[in-house]
Amino acid sequence: MNQIYQLLPFIRPYWKRSVIALILLTTLVFFDLSIPRLIQEIIDQGITAHNQQVVIQTALLMIGMSLTSLVIAIANNNLSVQVGESLARDLHDALFTSIQTFSYSNLDEWKTGQLMVRLTSDTANVKQVAQISLRIGTREPLLMIGSLILMFNTSPSLALTMFPLLLVTTLIIVYFVVKMEPLFRSMQQKLDWLNTVLQENTAATRLVKAFVRADFEGQRFEDANESYTETSVRAMQVMSTMSPVLTMCVNIGMVTVIWAGGMQSIQGNLTTGQIVAFTNYLLTTMTPLIMMVMLSNTWASGIASAKRVNGILDTVPEIQDAPKAASLPEATRGRVVFKNVSFHYNGDSAEPVLKNINLIVEPGQNVAILGSTGAGKSTLVNLVPRFYDVSSGQILLDGVDIRKIKQDALLAQIGIVPQETVLFSGSIGDNIRYGVSTASDEDVVAAAKAAQAHDFIVEFSQGYDTHIEERGMNLSGGQKQRIAIARALLTKPKILILDDSTSAVDVETETKIQEALESQTYQHTSLMVAQRISTVLKADKIAVIDKGHIAAEGTHQELIRSSSIYQEIYESQLGSGIRLEDLESDVRDATTGTAPLPLGDEE
Q1: Going by DSSP bridges, is the β-strand pair 549-554/541-546 parallel, antiparallel, or unpaired?
Q2: What is the pLDDT of residue 347?
Q3: Chain-centre distance of CA 98, in angstroms?
Q4: Residues 6+ positions from 390 with CB-CB distance below 8 Å
Q5: Is domain 78-313 given the CATH code 1.10.3720.10 in the classification?
Q6: Going along 46-181, which residue ranges are E strands?
Q7: Domain 336-413+493-592, what fold?
Q8: What is the pLDDT of residue 597?
Q9: Angle, CA of 139, 141 and 143, to the nearest 5°
Q10: Is residue 518 within 8 Å of residue 590, measured between CB atoms?
């Protein structure tokens, strides 16, 4: 229940409607509890006394109360629905906003399927609990309490006879509710995994087909589905066991009332109307218990879901602004300094990915980060926008530790083209404008031309208004990368990070992109992650990363003569038997701006 209480702030804005709904519900309960007493009056003072006027007047009163109850019930339902749907909307907003504040390390802990279940299924369960609490979940306990009081008022001796049965019934319900809560929590966990498998396969259908893994993935989904089904069956079996047990309790209660009440009526201690009224109050007491059992799965599921929703809302972003974080001046130069930087992904106990990195990137420089797969290149550049924080050391921007700069201010100066290109539903123009929604058409075209994307865009019948399908499936990998580069260039960043962002384009296009970047009218610092030599030949500085260290640093000319690792990379991509004259020729090409030597696997 504590998990539900944690979500009460989301109901607070709707407290007036909630209070009115509860007042209407209380009035409805009062009318419901009045009916058995009026039936008693009809029997004892009307039928038994042969008083037709009492029968007619009481019957008309009951009809009036029933019609009033109908209006009250409709009003209560409307208010309950409004509160529940408003709560769900606010929870969706809060969860989405919370997820957007997560740092990369937080996102590493959550699977996409888990986040989707919390935004959909779990939120719906919490909404149901709120609506039921303002309707059946509150009405039934009030009916039960009111009926117990009126049972004692009608016949204290008969009520005491029934008290042990009511106590046993209550304990049975508590037992089953406690037993069901972990089952429903397990169901949600199994649903997490089922959604994760479904999401992965939906996103990678083409890959599954290409590797002929449909049978394997089908079995994986079947296993997840079967596990979820087994848990659901166990929960439903517990539920189905409760209903017969409680029905038996109701039947025992009815038999007891008729037998004990009949004996007292024979002795003249009870009237027929009192027995009928008592029977109605007994049913009004037992029926809420049965209804609460029927709703116990909703409560158990809602409590489990509330716990999971709170898990998202209680997650504290690992990357946060310092208490006195400052903004950056407009005249940011873009000088980046890595000072004894080390980084661990999973805390200090993990193997460091980067170790004692020292690197200076001067304003306006184009610095390439080169190394083998897994060397730590992407990790290094991800530290600059604070997607992760350094484990030790400092990263300075214009002499200021980036941890002392407001995140929004820092990111406003950085343009990023990630390794994995992400495009959103909408037009090509909308995707390029993503970072600057107010950009003019001329600025969009200029950015696209710089990214070598303009020519293929205008070949589409709708040009920049061409709709991009889900995940950019109607574009090639190179086209998507060039749109992503245009998107970053449009923001005119002081620091441009290209994380292997030209891997899907040919060498000629890559060269044109690099020339366009160099010709930009505004000064910017570039950090470029690369795996192929053609990408780094013209860089002002190349940092060779090997096993988390900077193994060598310098220009192409310097490294080709002094770094054995750089020579190995060069040779592995261009083939063996390279002569010194060839290397010097490549150096001249890089210096004069002519096209670099093509890779061995490209024409």
Answers
A1: antiparallel
A2: 61
A3: 8
A4: 341, 342, 343, 383
A5: no
A6: none
A7: Rossmann fold (3.40.50)
A8: 39
A9: 65
A10: no
- Measured CA to CA, the distance from residue 463 to residue 7 in angstroms comes to 48
Q: Which residues contact 374 (CB under 8 A, 6 or more apart)?
A: none
Strand partners, 526: 366, 496
Locate the domains of the chain by residue range: 78-313, 336-413+493-592
**Number of C-beta neighbours around residue 346 at 10 A:** 10
Among 465, 499, 472, which residue's Cα sits nearest to residue 206? 472
Q: Decide: helix, strand or coil at residue 541.
A: strand
In the 3-class helix/strand/coil scheme, how is 19-43 assigned residue by residue?
A: HHHHHHHHHHHHHHHHHHHHHHHHH
SS3 state at 546: strand
Nearest to 562 by CA among 553, 570, 571: 553
**CA 194 to CA 184: how far, in whole Å?**
15
405 bridge partner residues: 326
pLDDT digits (tens, 9 = 90+) for 549-597: 898 899 888 888 888 888 888 888 766 544 444 544 554 554 444 444 3
154, 158, 160, 164: CA torsion to nearest 10: -120
Residue with the two structure tokens 């990790």: 379
DSSP 230-293: HHHHHHHHHHHHHHHHHHHHHHHHHHHHHHHHHHHHHTTSS-HHHHHHHHHHHHHHHHHHHHHH
CA angle 134, 140, 142 (to 5 degrees): 90
> Pairing mode, if any, of strands 400-401 and 495-499?
unpaired
* Distance, CA of 151 to chain centre: 50
Tell me the whole-structure pTM to 2 decimals: 0.69
Name the DSSP letter for residue 49. T
Contact 381, 417 (CB under 8 A): no
Q: Which two three-digit tokens encode residue 37? A: 């007493």
Residues of the chain below pLDDT 50: 577-581, 583-584, 587, 590-603
Query: How long is the chain?
Result: 603
The gap between the terminal CA atoms of the chain, to the nearest Å, is: 67
pLDDT (0 to 100) of residue 395: 92
CA distance 405 to 403: 6
Q: What is the 3-state secondary structure (H, E, C) of 435-488?
A: HCCCCCHHHHHHHHHHCCCHHHHHHCCCHHHCEECHHHCCCCHHHHHHHHHHHH
pLDDT (tens digit per residue) in 319-335: 888 888 888 777 788 88
pLDDT tens digits for range 91-110: 999 999 888 888 887 887 78
Buried-exposed string 17-32: b where 16+ CB fall within 10 A, e elsewhere: bbeebbebbeebbebb
| Same fold across 78-313 and 336-413+493-592 | no
**With left for phi above 0 and alpha for psi between -120 and 50, is residue 143 left, alpha or beta?**
alpha
Classify each residue of 155-165 as buried b or exposed e, where b means 16 or more C-beta atoms within 10 Å of its C-beta: beebbebbeeb
Distance CA 3, CA 125 (A): 13
